[in-house]
Amino acid sequence: MRFLSLPAIAYLLVLFYLPFLIVIFYSFGFPNEFTVGNYEIVTNPIFLKVFLNSLLIAALTTVICLILAYPVAYYIALKSEKKNLLLMLVILPFWINFLLRTYALMTILSPLGMMFTFQAVIIGMVYDYLPFMILPLYASLEKINRSQLEASYAFGATPLKTFLKVTLPLSKPGIVAGVILVFVPSLGEFVVPAMLGGTVATVGTLTWDLFLRYHDWWRGSALSVIYIAIVFFSLYLYIKRAGKLEL
Amino acid sequence: MKLIPYRMVKTAVELVNVCKKYGNFCVLTDINLSIMEGDFFSILGPSGSGKTTLLKIIAGLLYPDSGKVYMYDRDCTFLPPYKRNVGVVFQDLALFPHLNVFENVAYGLRIRKLPEKEIKEKVYECLYTVNLDPEVFAKRKISQLSGGQQQRVAIARALAIEPSILLLDEPLGSLDLKLRQHMISELKRIQRKVGTTFVYVTHDQTEALILSDRIAVINCGKVEQIGTPVEIYEKPKTKFVAEFIGEMNFIQAKREGEYFLSEIGPIKLRDSNGADKILLALRPEKVVIDPKNTRNVFRGRVDEVTYLGSQISVKININGFIIKSLQPSTIKVREGEEVLLGFREEDVLTFT
Amino acid sequence: MIKFFVASVFIFLYLPIFYVIVASFFDVKGFTLKWYEQLFQSKAIIVAFYNSLTLALISTAISVILGTLAAYSFVRYKMRSESLFYTPIIIPEITEALSLLLFYNLLSFPMGFYSVLLGHTAFNVAFVYVIVRARLEGFQRSLEDASLTLGANEVQTFLKVTLPLSMPGIVAAALIAFTLSWDNFIKTAFTTGPGFQTLPLIIWAQAARGVVSPSLNALTSLVLLVSLLMAYLYVRLSRKT
């Protein structure tokens, strides 16, 4: 009954993998002559500015998410008595599309007069990506035995020392997973900068514009191939360290 | 010419040269055995000996790479399990968690599309057979049952389809000692009551010896010996069987004229099939302390005495070689005491 | 101290959602349903609502069937090349969306309901596969063996044992697939054609200009509440099993 998997495999080959191959073709000039010229987009000063901008947004988002998420994950995993409820509150936002959540945030930011600023983009990004940081952190902190911590206290370590010597090192896999889960997608994020950023341009908004506004599919494809390469490279680094990917 | 036995006994299962490989690893090699109708037949072997694979081949859940499987003289080698009418009690019981007790037992009957009334009668009958009161248990969920009760439901479910053979794969493995002892006598009672051929897979020699009419001892995918419990225990054919079933003293010996020189001294034996180097095996309970009328007498020191109730286990040191012996508690020996021990020649088994 | 911090983070996460839902039920005079009434007076929104719903339902149906069958055969036959199903989950949505755009364009495939549906389903198949697979791995193989020895053939065994036991996983996968398709925006935007609108596209068209309005609050709340309903059903389901 192996053939039962064939429809799904065929579906993905035709409607996921084949289109992806076409993107690579387009990035090299298809259906016109073969060229690597589209990749010269990376030397364009405007592109560089956009790329650095995205990098900055992604980095800030990641750092702020980590700072906000760690105490929350720590609390849920090791201190809370209402673990299930809080965990559900972390998971619930995964069920709502970024478009809706970002609009919800807009209804708060707009009356405050904070729209269309760099700060608005960062707030929006943190708002959308925070659960992606809390969950992997929680997963790794949850594996820490309370008795491991008590052992540390028993040997006379202060809470701060226990945290630095026991908790933090043990939660490292969660930190790495969380950073990748936030940093990589936020680098290509479109919805948040498009809705809250006004003129703030990112890799995501540039991709959108190249495809849907300027119909420059060739350079758009080159940009996507570069982005995908970054995604795969990060995942490769992570899987190499962690052994496997946990979803 | 075929010999016709005085009682017409049919062969329920016959395996001829059955082989099974996983990759390059041979799990079963040239298995030949036949199981008579109505027998309680045990397949006994250590874990990893291939006994579960053998059971799956009889059930049709695996097909052999070569060889034949016959059931009542019909070639069933590649017959799918659902056409074999073989009941199986699985090691993990495999009760359907989404069905209650009644529906679990009724499962095979519903597949056979029996009328509702017949199904109910049969399910109740089977539950009574395994000593579960249907009025109490029929509506229960599987998760609401104790380990022993689940065991009974699994047996009832397998019996409900009136199988020509019932296979049991270490069904008592997960139970604690006391419950296991109880279930052993239950199994025997159930088998007598329904009269079905039982094929019982186990690594526990005690279970096999108590329950079986006949036992096949297998090791590393090969049949070592097939016989009644008495034959297996009293006359093991190979060193493995001698070692695996019960306790045994093994003594290396070398022919020297009329005698065999061994670690405990010269031994005189009646029969020695001509080999120069042999291995002698002696059951602890065949060792006699202060023997009379025997040619083989040795002097040793009592190293350890363990009280076992009706019996005592005595370890005797003969020139540094330890002989285990089992004596009635009425015999009084003290640790450190010098004793004479001996055995009858016919009690010594020899392996080359 | 830490309790206060954690509470603040959760308020940050939930205040906007809470606010948009509450605001959609009020005007200057107080509680009102008029924003919702307005929504359902607009023909465009009714059509878009219908489109979103059909899209989500059909995409869920197809992906549940394909994904479940694939998960079953992969688990039972220990097949390799599973990463086939993981890549679509890892790849950023916008990349998947634009590759579909190029693909349809190359084939001159008409852009509209079908192009969007096919795109949504590709992603959902992968998701259903991963979830159902986890469930199938959770129950013992011997249950199916037991069914076979009791006289049920492979198809009967699948229908009477495998399917009922993996049902919680399948329903969970269906809820997720429905939601992913129901409020999807980026993939829909890239693969839609003239005249085919969904609710998220309508929200986008107004919100992208930075406009916050009570009727948009109502529309967003409507989409959001359906997603939350799915999440609620999912939680109840996982509590039960």
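Residues 45-79 of chain A form the longest helix (35 residues).
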